[in-house]
Design the sequence.
């Protein structure tokens, strides 16, 4: 596995698009992360708190860690001191907890609201109405230790490119609507996190600003 080479190849397909690559290092050992790090890459994504905390401990401190998995409220405290961006905020309860831990750590924690765009039952995420309820709630307006930078979504796992493109379009459309409708000191709508190894080419065309790529860089995962 040549991580450096895979990373370079993947990045070359991004030219012409204004999107950031998050290298998803979940399940891979820290030395895989180091291989990418040594080529100059700094943005990495993880989906399990324990694994992320361990990697944060043993790896260089200038890595920007992105949390992309389902986050339980009782685990926010472990990542609050250092997390760069939480992509997967899917409830008001979680957002409240992130704000509380942000305050304790004297920092503002960047968040994306994860939206449900896939036809599959298994995916976490908020509906458009739920996002609006959050952004319009009085409680939200008082949260000074979080900042909402945009939205995240996962498309259906299918070969059908039309379906995937439609789902990404839905996310982009929702993003545009929120960006136009809401402004507050804790809102700065600028990121659309969409696209993984299998569908990032479609996501880039549909306006993704962050793609989360694991296996195309690090190889097939072994659980
Ligand atoms: C694992 C994961 C990815 C990366 O998946 P690959 O298919 O390996 O690129 C992206 N986003 C989320 C939320 C993930 O859990």
Sequence:
């Amino acid at each position: 596995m040549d991580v450096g080479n895979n990373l370079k190849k993947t990045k070359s397909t991004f030219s012409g698009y204004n999107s950031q690559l998050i290298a998803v290092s979940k399940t891979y050992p820290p030395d895989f992360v180091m291989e990418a790090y040594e080529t100059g890459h700094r943005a990495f994504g993880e989906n399990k708190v324990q694994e992320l905390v361990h990697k944060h401990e043993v790896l260089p401190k200038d890595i920007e860690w992105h949390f992309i998995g389902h986050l339980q409220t009782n685990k926010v405290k472990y990542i609050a001191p250092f997390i760069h961006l939480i992509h997967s905020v899917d409830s008001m309860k979680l957002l409240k907890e992130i704000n509380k831990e942000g305050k304790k750590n004297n920092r503002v924690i960047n968040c994306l609201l994860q939206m449900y765009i896939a036809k599959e039952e298994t995916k976490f995420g908020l509906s458009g109405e739920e996002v609006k309820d959050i952004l319009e709630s009085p409680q939200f307006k008082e949260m000074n230790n979080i900042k909402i930078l945009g939205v995240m979504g996962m498309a259906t796992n299918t070969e059908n490119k039309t379906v995937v493109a439609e789902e990404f379009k839905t996310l982009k459309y929702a993003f545009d609507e929120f960006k136009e409708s809401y402004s507050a000191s804790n809102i700065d709508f600028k990121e659309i996190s969409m696209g993984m190894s299998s569908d990032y080419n479609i996501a880039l065309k549909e306006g993704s600003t962050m793609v989360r790529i694991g296996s195309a860089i690090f190889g097939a995962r072994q659980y």
In short: The longest strand covers residues 146-153. Residues 71 and 88 are 7 Å apart (CA to CA). DSSP finds ten helices and eight strands in the chain. The mean pLDDT is 96.
